[in-house]
Amino acid sequence: MRFIAGTAVLALxxxxxxxxxxxxxxxxxxTSAASSSPPSxxxxxxxxxxxxxxxAAGLPCSTWTQDNVVQTAAESGNCxxxxxxxxxxxxxxxxxxxxxxxxxxxxMTEQKLTPDPILIGPNWIIxxxxxxxxxxxxxxxxxx
Length: 144
Known about the structure:
The protein has helices at 2-14, 47-56, 91-110, 135-138; strands spanning 29-30, 43-44, 65-66, 75-80, 83-87, 118-120, 124-127, 141-143. It is α+β, with helices and mostly antiparallel strands.
């Protein structure tokens, strides 16, 4: 029940009609880190590169689908029914997504539901029940 209610609200809040197609000259990952993230947190140019790093770190990803439905994301996809990965082109887009997820978590908490942890990197987010399990390997900040 928690998943269904959370998913319905999440779908209403963060999905949009359009998506941003990936650029033809994208590279998998760079090593620069944002000042608010641990030095080990990398930027990922594609959501597929983020997914590969997350899977290597132990994130379950049985049914990968890149659907690009997260509204402010450059790219997004689902690793499982309840784990969403997304990358962002600008700090403003990332902050907008963080604000939306915080609002969603607050709403879920008010409804006495337990929100999933959110792992936030310099230009990416992993949102799902096991997101915090890969924080040590990927870096970033966990919010609950």
